[in-house]
Design a protein that fits this description.
There is one protein chain. With 279 residues, the protein is an alpha+beta fold. Helix content is 25%, strand content 24%. The protein has a 7-stranded mixed beta sheet with strand order 1-2-3-13-5-15-4. A 3-stranded antiparallel beta sheet has the order 12-6-14. The longest helix is centred in the last third of the chain and has 15 residues, at 211-225.
């Protein structure tokens, strides 16, 4: 029986009408994965899931990333919060998530997908936005495609965080600099044959291009990729379950008060293919 999927915008985002038991069974794994890559973001509403069930569902879709362990020992759980007490190791980095980015640009193979569930919703702000980078690439002119197909871009933690924390102290900056830089193609030719823009706030510069020209070129491309027709904004409700394809979208959180208590629980799937240049 096919999944009932309702498009939320023409180019990105679909709501799935699926019961919790069916979701957790793994019986719809292939259909969900196919829809996820087609639509970039999938939403299931009104699901009362535990962390264990969220983890169980995520693992039906691929290889669960186990690099992060919470205080309670929940393998793979990342607590997305600005509250240092809830996530002392990573809370300092979450201001950077307010800027358009894809996860894992410091890795050879970025994560495939992420499953996100709200625990505490901010009373104001705190929405999450997604931009379809397949659609953004496809909307470029033939001349623009020919140019971006040949370019590479350097990714760094400094680039990702400088704008988010303009008053960072030396200790913070030194921590950012401890992360490796990584050079990726600007256009990702996937094993499916489709192409997407491998853009992120972590984009530092294009090698061989004058710094000012590189900055302006990347900013122009980012503005193109985040035009309203490519973007879905999710307004969080209790018992939402959201899945996004990290290899074909960018995402960002919208601002919210640091003392709002906003808390998301996230499980992530390991990547399945490296960012490959256009052949």
């Amino acid at each position: 029986m096919p999944i009932n999927a309702i498009k939320l915008t023409p180019l990105v985002g679909s709501e799935l009408k699926l019961e919790g038991e069916a979701l957790l069974s793994g019986d719809y794994r292939d259909e969900i994965r196919q829809l996820l890559v087609q639509r970039g973001v999938l939403i299931v509403r009104d699901l009362e899931l535990s962390d264990q069930q969220q983890r169980q569902f995520t693992a039906t879709l691929g290889d669960l990333r186990l690099g992060t362990v919470s205080k309670e020992g929940d393998e793979g759980l990342m607590k997305v919060t600005l509250d240092q007490k809830n996530n002392p190791e990573y809370a300092d980095f979450f201001p950077g998530t307010m800027f358009w980015h894809m996860d894992g640009t410091y890795d050879a193979t970025p994560p495939f997908a992420t499953v996100l569930r709200p625990i505490v919703i901010a009373p104001e702000g705190g929405q999450t936005e997604f931009a379809n980078t397949y659609a953004a690439y496809e909307a470029l002119s033939a001349e623009q495609k020919a140019r971006v197909d040949t370019l590479q871009v350097v990714h760094s933690m400094q680039a990702a965080m400088f704008h988010a924390c303009p008053e960072a102290d030396l200790e913070q900056i030194q921590r950012w600099c401890s992360y490796p830089t990584r050079t990726h193609p600007l256009v990702w030719e996937h094993k499916s044959g489709r192409k997407s823009l491998a853009l992120s706030t972590s984009c530092s510069h294009i090698p061989g291009m004058a710094p000012v020209d590189s900055f302006e070129f990347l900013q122009d491309l980012l503005r193109h990729a985040t035009q309203p027709q490519f973007v879905y904004r999710h307004e969080w409700r209790p018992n939402d379950l959201l899945i996004w394809d990290n290899t074909g979208t960018m995402h960002r959180g919208r601002p919210y008060a640091a003392d709002s208590g906003r808390l998301m629980h996230r499980f992530t799937l390991n990547g399945e293919e490296p960012i490959r240049a256009v052949a």
